[in-house]
């Protein structure tokens, strides 16, 4: 069975599991949250894994769009699909601005500039009235999709969210496999060569950046719709750090990597408290009980281990292993 | 705009200079490390924080005073810097240097998380030393002696660092190593050792700023976090080409921030970023940067 | 007395790229040896491999009888080796004099030339000592690149394309310099494209192609070997 068929089967199975999940005992809101982060990571990976650009400011798109969408649905009363659209457009717009400023500089400066711009966004969000500051934007209604389908039920919301995320993911897959995606990969591998071939490298990078930002915005908006609120933590730089970790851990430059990475990181964050308790009982060291509050520390540890050892990421290693086995 | 008294303005400008001093020392260290190692040391904020925390710990657990820690904390953090470079960073040099940013990010989260789990996030109080705890009446304002000390000490250290790098033999090794480390090694200079010591020196600088900061900013595990991101913006504005540039940019931006706090307080947390945007549009290489 | 430089079965890689496929050469103390070959033959790579500046190396490289294949670059230098790279490597952030003074005196090597001796041999550098390194002319930079390794006490000099792109009068000055050094007993390995420059100076020649030595002969055999050389080098 060749790789293409294998991956199609795998994705098919995954989709089936997701469709069946609420009936298998999974908590719909939790899975939806996971789906949003998976989309966020996939959108981010488009930029890092395929274009080779490390943005350290993607929280601005996640959180910024979360606020815009939330505001649109709560205060302007837009229906959910319009709210999501508003969020997506907000992400694209913000992405365009960030991109215009950051693309001028290479590699390491690019990361610092995106971080600084995102931090600026954070402070604006902190101070602006419409975001609700430290309390966040609360009480965002589920509303009626297209004015017809009531999303108040978690189950209905779940399938709508699933459709949105699957469609967005398919868009990413198509982008990667399209001629545009090929050029993008060419730029990542050998930019001077791409320039000499006549490509407007900066414009292509900017386009990738905007797409990535827009879909990150979609993820943020969806999350707001599902959870009913948007908070400062979505705009804080640690959210940027988390999505980098998800992508790195899952596998840069693979399509399935971000999905796996997001799942692992979200699950880890939820379970680290229990794991800490387990370690405390095992070693009778009481300090392990505080691990639950110290998600930061565990995240940092995973980062360090990941960069030093599993650089290809989980799916990267799996794919490499499967290629070797096939021979 | 309200009536602003001379005293209030001077006071804010002084605070701006104090913050600017921290920006200068930190961006200096960051630039030196980046120049030779080609790594953005995200951990710089954490090293700054460690300087302050170690100073606090020394007082709290062992009664060791401020003046000793002014030398002691940078030394301790420098040793930690050696460990970080030898145990972690050295693996990054052969691969994409962006991983250096990620690695140091991970280390930052690790260290901050660890300290947070022990000490929480609320500040740990640290008093200024006796000698500097009073104020001097200058007529137009009352000058808190400690803040004046911070500015003087910072400027001294910055100038000393600048001198060492630009005017001495050792500095020539560093400057040459930044340009072409392999060739410098071919001349018989132990470049790997120089790399380790440079990182340790950068760490020591950050820690020194941390000691200075302990009585002024709340000592907490998160005190380096927001500072480091502003310092990144400072470095982008100044450009990484010049030592003097990093110092002047840091001080200048601190002053600008102080002025903003007086005249337009809502913008004070974002003014540095806004200046960064303007500089990026007009002079992408930075104010003092040299296009590579 | 051990050979100044003895290379046996040297293979080298830049990353995945296998660039040297078994180089063998010997240089006795006081000899001047020239490495000839087309661009890409592996001459510069050989010099870099001696200094340990390539990716991976296997084989045997002995300097003054000491095995250096596993040594870090800075320790190889301290065996008394001076390296003058093809790109000259003058540092822009250093002045001319700082560039000159940069390489430290090598441990356990002979005493290098003093700064006065160097300025006597290269008066241009004395004049321009405070100028920024890269503001010097091409010829001056080349002089600087060689001068700075003379100060260190290195007795084995690895010179890569020192005559490249220089005016004839400068090349003549370089020729005189190499002759002086040879008279003083320095051991020199030169990589050269400029056949006319290398021919009168060298005691022996090696020709490289595709990462291997394909020809070797002494100065006396040069005339006889000209047809072979014409073919190999397109001279």
Describe the structure.
The complex is a heterotrimer of chains A (about 325), B (about 290) and C (about 240). Chain A has helices at about 5-20, 30-50, 60-75, 80-100, 105-125, 155-175, 180-190, 190-195, 200-225, 235-250, 255-285, 295-310, 315-325; strands at about 145, 150. Chain A is mainly α and about 325 residues long. Chain A is globular. Chain B has helices spanning about 5-35, 45-60, 65-85, 100-120, 145-165, 170-180, 180-185, 190-215, 225-240, 245-265, 270-280; strands at about 135, 140-145. By secondary structure, chain B is mostly helical. The longest helix of chain B is centred in the N-terminal third of the chain and has 32 residues, at about 5-35. The model of chain B has no long low-confidence stretch (mean pLDDT about 90). In chain B, strands 1-2 form a two-stranded antiparallel sheet. Helix content of chain B is about 70%, strand content about 0%. Chain C has a 6-stranded mixed β-sheet with strand order 6-7-8-3-9-10, with helices on both faces. Chain C has a 4-stranded antiparallel β-sheet with strand order 2-1-4-5, with helices on one face. Chain C is globular, with a radius of gyration of 17 Å. Chain C is an alpha/beta fold and about 240 residues long. In chain C, about 35% of the residues lie in helices and about 25% in strands. Classes of the chains: A mainly alpha (about 325), B mainly alpha (about 290), C alpha/beta (about 240). The interface between A and B is large, with 43 and 42 residues.
């Amino acid at each position: 069975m060749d790789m293409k068929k294998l991956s199609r089967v795998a994705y098919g199975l995954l989709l089936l599991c997701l469709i069946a999940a609420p009936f298998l005992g999974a908590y719909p809101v939790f899975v939806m949250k996971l789906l949003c982060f998976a989309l966020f990571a996939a959108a981010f990976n488009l930029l890092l894994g395929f274009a080779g650009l490390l943005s350290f400011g993607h929280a601005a798109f996640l959180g910024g769009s979360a606020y815009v969408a939330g505001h649109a649905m709560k205060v302007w009363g837009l229906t959910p699909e319009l709210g999501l659209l508003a969020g997506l457009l907000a992400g694209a717009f913000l992405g365009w601005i960030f991109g215009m400023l950051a693309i001028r500089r290479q590699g390491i400066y690019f990361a610092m500039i995106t971080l600084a711009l995102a931090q600026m966004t954070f402070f604006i969000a902190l101070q602006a009235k419409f975001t609700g500051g430290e309390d966040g934007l609360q009480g965002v209604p589920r509303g009626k999709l297209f004015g017809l389908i009531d999303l108040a039920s978690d189950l209905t919301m779940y399938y709508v969210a699933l459709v949105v995320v699957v469609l967005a993911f398919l868009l990413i897959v198509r982008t990667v496999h399209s001629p545009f995606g090929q050029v993008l990969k060419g730029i990542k591998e050998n930019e001077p060569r791409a320039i000499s071939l006549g490509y407007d490298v900066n414009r292509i990078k900017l386009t990738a950046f905007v797409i990535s930002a827009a879909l990150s915005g979609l993820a943020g908006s969806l999350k707001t719709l599902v959870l009913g609120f948007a908070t400062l933590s979505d705009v804080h730089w640690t959210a940027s750090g988390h999505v980098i970790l998800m992508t790195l851990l899952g596998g840069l430059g693979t399509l399935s990597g971000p999905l796996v990475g997001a799942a692992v990181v979200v699950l880890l964050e939820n379970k680290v408290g229990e794991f800490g308790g387990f370690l405390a009982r095992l070693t009778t060291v009481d300090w392990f009980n505080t691990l639950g509050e110290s998600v930061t520390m565990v995240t940092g540890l995973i980062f360090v281990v990941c960069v030093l050892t599993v650089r290809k990421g989980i799916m990267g290693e799996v794919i490499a292993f499967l290629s070797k086995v096939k021979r | 705009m309200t009536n602003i008294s001379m005293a209030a303005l001077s006071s804010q400008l002084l605070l701006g200079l104090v913050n600017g001093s921290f920006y200068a020392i930190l961006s200096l260290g960051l630039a030196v490390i980046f120049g030779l190692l080609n790594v953005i040391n995200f951990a710089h904020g954490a090293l700054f924080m460690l300087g302050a925390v170690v100073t606090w710990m020394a007082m709290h657990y062992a009664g060791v005073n401020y003046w000793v820690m002014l030398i002691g904390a940078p030394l301790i953090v420098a040793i930690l810097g050696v460990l970080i470079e030898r145990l972690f960073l050295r693996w990054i040099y052969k691969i994409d240097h962006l991983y250096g940013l990620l690695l140091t990010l991970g280390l930052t989260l690790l260290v901050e998380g660890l300290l947070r789990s022990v000490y929480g996030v609320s500040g740990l109080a640290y008093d200024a030393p006796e000698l500097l705890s009073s104020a001097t009446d200058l007529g137009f304002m009352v000058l808190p002696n400690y803040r004046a000390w911070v500015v003087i000490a910072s400027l001294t250290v910055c100038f000393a660092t600048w001198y060492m790098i630009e005017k001495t033999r050792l500095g020539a090794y560093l400057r040459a190593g930044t340009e072409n480390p392999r060739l410098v090694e071919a001349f018989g200079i132990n470049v790997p050792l120089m790399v380790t010591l440079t990182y340790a020196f950068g760490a020591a600088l950050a820690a020194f700023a941390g000691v200075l900061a302990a009585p002024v900013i709340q000592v907490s595990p998160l005190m380096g976090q927001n500072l480091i991101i502003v310092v990144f913006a400072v470095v982008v504005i100044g450009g990484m080409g010049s030592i003097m540039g990093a110092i002047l940019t840091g001080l200048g931006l601190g002053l600008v921030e102080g002025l903003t706090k007086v005249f337009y307080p809502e913008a004070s947390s974002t003014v540095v970023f806004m200046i960064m945007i303007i500089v990026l549009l007009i002079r992408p290489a930075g104010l003092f940067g040299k296009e590579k | 007395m051990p050979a100044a430089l003895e290379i046996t079965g040297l293979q080298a890689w830049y990353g995945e790229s296998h660039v040297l496929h078994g180089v063998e050469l010997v240089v006795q103390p006081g000899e001047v040896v020239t490495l000839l070959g087309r661009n890409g033959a592996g001459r510069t790579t050989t010099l870099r491999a001696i200094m340990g500046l390539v990716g991976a190396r296997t084989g045997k490289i002995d300097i003054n009888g000491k095995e250096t294949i596993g040594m870090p670059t800075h320790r190889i230098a301290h065996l008394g080796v001076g390296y003058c790279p093809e790109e000259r490597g003058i540092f822009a952030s250093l002045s001319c004099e700082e560039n000159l003074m940069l390489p430290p005196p090598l441990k356990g090597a002979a005493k290098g030339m003093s700064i006065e001796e160097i300025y006597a041999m290269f008066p241009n550098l004395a004049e321009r000592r405070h100028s920024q390194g890269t503001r010097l002319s091409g010829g001056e930079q080349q002089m600087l690149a060689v001068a700075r390794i003379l100060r260190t006490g290195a007795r084995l000099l690895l010179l890569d394309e020192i005559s490249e792109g220089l005016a004839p009068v400068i090349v003549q000055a370089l020729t005189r310099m190499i002759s002086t050094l040879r008279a003083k007993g320095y051991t020199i390995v030169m990589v050269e494209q400029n056949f006319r420059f290398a021919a009168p100076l060298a005691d022996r020649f090696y020709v490289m192609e595709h990462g291997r030595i394909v020809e070797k002969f002494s100065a006396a055999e040069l005339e006889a070997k000209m047809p072979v050389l014409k073919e190999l080098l397109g001279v």
